[in-house]
């Protein structure tokens, strides 16, 4: 599967990550190289195989929904890059029309 | 008296209990070693000397009033992907270089409750993605056996700290070999437990169905001591297993008569350095002499593990790392034009190359049109790999392989070739994919560099791996070798 520059740019756009022109160049041939290693999986017929990860994930055990102590406001805001009036500041997401 | 920084946990505990040394003396010895060696080794991202000294005073009081446990007063390093309240937890990334957690990971709480002393946080490949610790945003770590060689990764800081006497033990995390491979390359003991045996609460997520925390120690006995403290059900991690607390030190015995060990031919094929192969074969002979039954076997699906892992892990990583948006914590971009630009440039500046590469790979494998061909296919082969191990363990109690195909390689030789770097994990990936325990212990040297042997056992049979490792360390002294730095 050839990976061209456009594919890398498209992947970066759908993930919402900025990558440089050099990275686009580098990743396109490296990812193509890595994907070649994956072709080996086509040797195995998996048409009748069930998907399974771990017992502990499959069981999805839930805890009792008890009321507990949550983080206080200072702790929640401690690492926020930008804050004002005990709230997190971030550029506007929804645009008014 | 032995150099304090050469002591194991069990040796130090004996001296602390007998009041022959104090925890303050022991802690200071390690802090002094850190001060004199860190410019060469760079095993830490953050060192916490004040915290360590005050904890050591408290530990000495516990010995005075006879309320000490085996880990009381024992200095440790914790990988910088494990959340530590009030202490930076960077994941080796520019993205989190100023991040200070507001809570402790369950494993750290449990070690604090046992009286262990935090010396600082261990260097690592960014977000645990790497096999050499060269992907750390801060600095690479050197292998204490040869400062021009890598210590392995991603828990390279932990392995180098234990090998160099900068810490008695460390906690690492292992997603595809990140405890075992650096343990092998630095000549120490490292265990990846069964998936779910140790809580992941507070472990910053890389690939959630594979990540597992485990001990990195000087010997197998120490490994059992640390595992005792950190394993068990945690209400804050729904994937942690509801198992009875177990004393792993009780399984340590030199009597391994009748234990059935398999040597899978696929792990001794081309691509494995001849000296590595020979050392593991010699170890197998020793097990045989000690009464174990050692036979060749075959795990033909092993060759698919690399592909399965490098589809599943980047897919999960691309999902997990989407949380870094520059809003609530972590790095953020300056003066963005709008919200989307803010998120994009935050990630562009915050993540290093290997992380971006894996995000691209994971996004590709999960994208429309490729999801079934890559991600679902890998999950199905994962099921087959698990089944292959289940069948093998009907015949054998343990499987022995090399931990790493080669000894430590020179710094800078593989950073530009991701496929060649990924091959370093060839021997450790299958156990991660299957979620079963695997222990790495030193079993020889080549050109002054340590060789590691991996002991894989079935689901929750850590005790068998530890027993075999313990018996081996009673018959050999590879684990007692210390580097001259």
Q: In sequence order, what are the helices and strands of chain B, one letter per element?
A: HHEHEHEHEHEEHEHEHHHHEHHEEH
Distance, first to last CA of chain A: 43 Å
**Known CATH architecture of the domain at 4-258 in chain B:** Alpha-Beta Complex
Poorly predicted segments of chain A = none
Spatial sequence of strands, sheet with the most strands of chain B: 1-3-2-4-6-5-10-11-9-7-8
Report the top-level CATH class of the domain at 4-258 in chain B: Alpha Beta
CATH topology of the domain at 1-42 in chain A: Histone, subunit A
Fraction in beta strands of chain A: under 5%
Helix content of chain B: 25-40%
Low-confidence residue ranges of chain B: none
Q: Output the radius of gyration of chain A.
A: 23 Å
How would you sum up this structure, described in words?
The complex is a heterodimer of chains A (97) and B (485). Helix content of chain A is 40%, strand content 4%. With 97 residues, chain A is mainly alpha-helical. Chain A has a domain at 1-42: Histone, subunit A. A two-stranded antiparallel ribbon of chain A has the order 1-2. In chain A, helix 1 packs across helix 2. Chain A starts with a helix and ends in a 9-residue tail after the last strand. The relative contact order of chain A is 0.08. Chain B has 485 residues and is an alpha/beta fold. Chain B has a domain at 4-258: Amidase signature (AS) enzymes. Chain B has helices at residues 9-17, 23-41, 49-64, 106-113, 156-164, 180-186, 220-230, 274-289, 305-320, 339-350, 353-366, 371-395, 418-422, 429-434, 462-475; strands at 44-47, 75-79, 117-122, 169-174, 189-192, 212-217, 260-264, 293-297, 398-402, 438-446, 449-456. In chain B, strands 1-3-2-4-6-5-10-11-9-7-8 form an eleven-stranded mixed sheet, with helices on both faces. In chain B, helix 9 (305-320) crosses helix 12 (371-395). Chain B is globular and about 65 Å long. Chain B starts with 8 loop residues before the first helix and ends in a 10-residue tail after the last helix. In chain B, 63% of the residues are buried. Chains A and B meet through helix 1, helix 2 and helix 3 of A and helix 9, helix 10, helix 11, helix 12 and helix 13 of B.
């Amino acid at each position: 599967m050839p990976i061209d520059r456009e594919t890398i740019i498209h992947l970066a756009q759908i993930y919402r990550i900025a990558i440089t022109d050099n990275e686009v160049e580098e990743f396109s041939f490296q990812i193509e190289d890595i994907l070649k290693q994956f072709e080996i999986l086509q040797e195995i017929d998996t048409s009748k195989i069930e998907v399974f990860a771990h017992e502990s994930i499959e069981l999805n055990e839930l805890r009792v929904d008890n009321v507990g102590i949550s983080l206080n406001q200072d702790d929640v805001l401690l690492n926020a890059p930008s804050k004002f009036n005990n709230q997190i500041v971030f550029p506007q997401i929804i645009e008014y029309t | 008296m032995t150099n304090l920084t050469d002591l194991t946990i069990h040796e130090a505990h004996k001296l602390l209990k007998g009041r022959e040394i104090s925890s303050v003396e022991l802690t200071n010895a390690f802090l002094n070693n850190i001060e004199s060696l860190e410019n060469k080794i760079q095993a830490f991202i953050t060192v916490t000397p004040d915290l360590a000294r005050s904890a050591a005073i408290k530990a000495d009081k516990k010995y005075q009033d006879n309320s000490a446990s085996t880990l009381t007063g024992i200095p440790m390093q914790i990988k910088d992907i494990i959340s530590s309240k009030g202490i930076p937890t960077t994941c080796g990334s520019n993205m989190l270089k100023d991040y200070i957690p507001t809570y402790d990971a369950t494993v750290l709480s449990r070690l604090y409750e046992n009286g262990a002393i935090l010396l600082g946080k261990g260097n690592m490949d960014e977000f645990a993605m790497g096999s050499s610790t060269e992907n750390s945003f801060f600095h690479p770590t050197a292998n204490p056996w040869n400062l021009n060689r890598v210590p392995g990764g991603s828990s390279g800081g932990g392995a180098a700290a234990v090998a160099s006497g900068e810490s008695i033990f460390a906690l690492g995390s292992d997603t595809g070999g990140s405890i075992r491979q650096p343990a092998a390359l630095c000549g120490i003991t490292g265990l990846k437990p069964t998936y779910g045996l140790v809580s992941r609460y507070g472990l910053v997520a890389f690939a959630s169905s594979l990540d597992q925390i485990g001990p990195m120690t000087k010997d197998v006995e120490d490994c059992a001591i640390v595992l005792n403290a950190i394993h068990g059900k945690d209400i804050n991690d729904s994937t942690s297993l509801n198992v009875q607390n177990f004393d792993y030190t009780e399984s340590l015995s030199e009597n391994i008569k009748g234990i059935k060990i398999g040597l899978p031919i696929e792990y001794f094929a081309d691509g494995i350095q001849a000296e590595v192969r020979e050392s593991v074969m010699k170890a197998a002979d020793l097990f045989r002499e000690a009464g174990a039954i050692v036979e060749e076997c075959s795990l033909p699906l092993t060759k698919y593990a690399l592909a399965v892992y490098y589809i599943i892990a980047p897919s999960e990583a691309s999902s997990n790392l989407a949380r870094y948006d520059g809003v609530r914590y972590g790095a953020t971009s300056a003066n963005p034009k709008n919200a989307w630009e803010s998120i994009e440039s935050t990630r562009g500046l915050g993540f290093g190359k290997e992380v971006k590469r894996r995000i691209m790979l994971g996004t590709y494998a999960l994208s429309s049109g490729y999801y079934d061909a890559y991600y679902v296919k890998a999950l199905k082969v994962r099921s087959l790999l698990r089944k292959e191990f289940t069948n093998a363990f009907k015949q054998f109690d343990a499987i022995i392989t090399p931990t790493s195909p080669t000894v430590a390689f020179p710094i800078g030789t593989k950073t530009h070739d991701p496929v060649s770097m990924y091959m370093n994990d060839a021997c450790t990936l299958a156990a991660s994919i299957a979620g079963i325990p695997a222990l790495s212990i030193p079993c020889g040297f080549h050109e002054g560099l340590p060789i590691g042997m991996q002991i894989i056992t079935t689901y929750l049979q850590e005790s068998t791996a530890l027993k075999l490792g313990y018996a081996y360390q009673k018959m050999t002294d590879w684990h007692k070798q210390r580097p001259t730095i």
